[in-house]
Design a protein that fits this description.
- By secondary structure, this protein is mainly beta.
- The chain is 0% helix and 45% strand.
- The protein contains no helices and eleven strands.
- Strands 2, 4, 5, 6, 9, 10 and 11 form a seven-stranded mixed beta sheet that branches. A four-stranded antiparallel beta sheet has the order 1-3-8-7, with no helix packed on it.
- The chain starts with a strand and ends with a strand.
- 35% of the residues are buried.
Amino acid sequence: QLQLAESGGNMVQPGGSLKLSCAVSGAAGGTLDHYAIAWFRQAPGKEREGVSCISARGGLTDIADSVKGRFTTSKDNDKNTVYLRMNRLKSEDTAIYYCAAAQIFDEYYCSTYSNYDFWGQGTQVTVSS
């Protein structure tokens, strides 16, 4: 059973940076080569929003327009960990951030609109002065 654990959430001032980590365990073959990994966020009173994803193979990424140019995602295959680097943070980035995994037929593709079956517990990011 795939398990995901987020870490790195914190309180930061506007304009600051954070790097979230998503450690994945229990993957088939001990590798993330069969799973697209995405980041989502949910702010109080708002719907869940897809933030980014990275493909199982090839390192293709997709970033939401709302954070494009400020957020990036990357993967360390040796550590089975996916990262979300967040720069120039704004108050509207305040949310609980979740990582999720999906087995997508095309392993060189990802989308936050795919069906993600495995989820972490989330990590809180608060941007406030």
